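Quick log. Single chain, no ligands specified.
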Amino acid sequence: MYLNPKLILYKSIPTVLKYLCCLFLFTKCYSQNVQINGRAHSTYAGKIIELYTSTDYITSTRQKESQDTISKDGSFELHAQIDMVQPVSLKIGNVVARLYIQPDYRYSITVPELDQDKNVNSDVELFVNIGVIGRDSTELNALIFDYEEHYNQLFSATDSRYMSRALLFRRVDSLQKLCDRRYAKIKDSYFKNYVTYSIASVNASLSRGEEYLMRTYLVGKPIQYLHYEYMQFFNSVTRGYLERISSGRKGQTVYNIINTKASYEALRDFVNLDKEFASDSLRELIIIRDLWDDYFKADYSPDAVSAIVSQINLQTTIKEHKKITTTMLSYFHKMQVGSKAPIFTAISRDGKLISSSVFKGKWVYLNFFSTKNTESLKEMPKIASLKKKFGDKLVFLSICLDDSISSYQHYLKTNSKFDWSIWYNYNENFFMTGKDFYFVTGTEGYFLINNLGYLAQSPAAAPSKGIEYKLNVIFKVKPRTTRTGIR
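-> predicted structure:
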């Protein structure tokens, strides 16, 4: 078993992702909530730099806070109004970087030159590590950088050895002990939770049991809505919660409550039967989380899910939940048939970053799959059959959602007959991927995009569930008859 956590840098990822030596400086800033003064490399002169915050980590929605034009000498200034510590993303065209900021501080940063072999004018998102000028080992960004170094030392497979599950467990425990000693005197609450939930996420990736992880890290703990690492862990261990508890009960199911009754009251009563959680706010957030997932699943009625989310939006007394459900409702409308299909970046067969915009002007049948999801794997040979029939009429694009790029590469080698575009869902920290843009919440999803770049089916039927019929209608392909004597 190989572990490929979010902070490990893949060897096949371009050199633009190499770590830069970061220096840190910050001073109190009272004239602005947060001010970022920067110096970018001269190659960025005249370009726009933008600063984005995240509105929530259920829908992964980002909001632009400010922008500035980089001067000839590379200088720029950005501002943000925040009331709690959080990560932000900085964008210069398709160049993206991250920084953790806290209220009432001024940061001085540098943006390095992009590798010469990278196309800054393409649609592919390219990630760089900014420098923060000065040095203070107790500043949040410095602490996170220090943690990541030790994390990678334990989990980067530099000798290409096979890591057994038992070995990975020991390394997680070693990481926890190291952090307990190394950061014992650190008082920064965001960083302490950063370490806690980063390690919790590793435990989740090792399948240490959802119920155990929820009791250990969520039950009785405050909900940290804008703490990225907390919410990543929350999303991981609560995904599919409603279906899990439904499978162990007789009588009414979550499918019936959602698809037939479309009732938040019935769904809330159903969840309340689980005495594991004493917190109504945690229960409600888990319901919201699962409804966001269910909306994009073919087994659930999008209209029914939207109706329940609307009920929560009207009834909830928790402002964060009202904000999240409002965003969900707006996105439900956005992802309807006829809306613009999102463009995203992934890794191609040859290990290069590539944009889905290369298929502009063509019909595209897009599917997301995982080598760990047997149902999605069963659909791949059927896609091969569809390609033989419709390959001259539309493009087939498959995105692998495996945690490990090595398992994706192994799948390509053992399935060389699959000759269409099969890409890897590149995920670097909290930046948006194809999975994020299409709101694929599990490890399987299907979409049909027309030649004008709009969603023709969202979600689309899987190959085994009727997409061929839809394609026959669109491209006016007459089905073959099997009656004797008729050709």
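Confidence is low (pLDDT under 50) at residues 1-32, 482-487.
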